[in-house]
Specification:
The protein has 7 helices and 5 strands. The chain is of the alpha/beta class.
Length: 132
C-alpha cells in the first residue's frame, strides 16, 4: 500500500518517533513524504521514502495529485493546529481529496496509531479492490 507522511515543523520529531516505533509495519509498504519530513524519517529509520518537494514548495500539491489519481491508500498528516500556516489551503485540499476519494486520513498520533495497526491487521485491504 502507498502511505503518505507529512508533519508540520512542530510535529516532525513525533513523526520520526512514530516511524521508528512502527518501522516493522512501514517497511512492508511504499512510503511517500514531503521533502524535509521524508529526509528526517530516512535518517532516523533507514526506511526508503519517495520524497516530494517541501510541503510549502509544492509537495502537498504533488501528494494531492497522487491522491486524486487514486494512488495513495492512506495519509498520516501530523498537524500543528495551534500555529497557522501560510499554505493552509494546500493542507485543506489534501484533506478534501482524501474525503472525496475515500482515503483514510490521520491528523494526530492517536488516529495514526489506530490506522497503522489496522493496516497491519489487514483492515485496509479493501483499498486494493477500490483501486480497480
Amino acid at each position: 500500500m502507498n502511505i503518505g507522511l507529512v508533519a508540520h515543523d512542530a510535529k516532525k520529531k513525533l513523526m520520526q518517533n512514530f516511524c521508528v516505533a512502527y518501522r516493522g509495519i512501514l517497511c512492508k509498504h511504499e512510503l511517500y513524504a514531503t521533502g524535509t519530513t521524508g529526509r528526517l524519517i530516512e535518517e532516523m529509520t533507514n526506511l526508503s521514502i519517495h520524497k516530494y518537494l517541501a510541503g510549502h514548495l509544492g509537495g502537498l500539491q504533488q501528494m494531492g495529485a497522487q491522491i486524486e489519481n487514486n494512488e495513495m491508500d492512506m495519509v498520516i498528516y501530523l498537524r500543528d493546529p495551534l500555529t497557522p500556516k501560510a499554505h493552509e489551503p494546500d493542507v485543506n485540499n489534501v484533506i478534501r481529496l482524501c474525503d472525496v476519494h475515500n482515503i483514510p486520513f490521520a491528523t494526530n498520533l492517536a488516529s495514526a496509531e489506530l490506522m497503522i495497526k489496522a493496516l497491519d491487521r489487514g483492515d485496509l485491504d479493501w483499498r486494493e479492490l477500490y483501486k480497480r
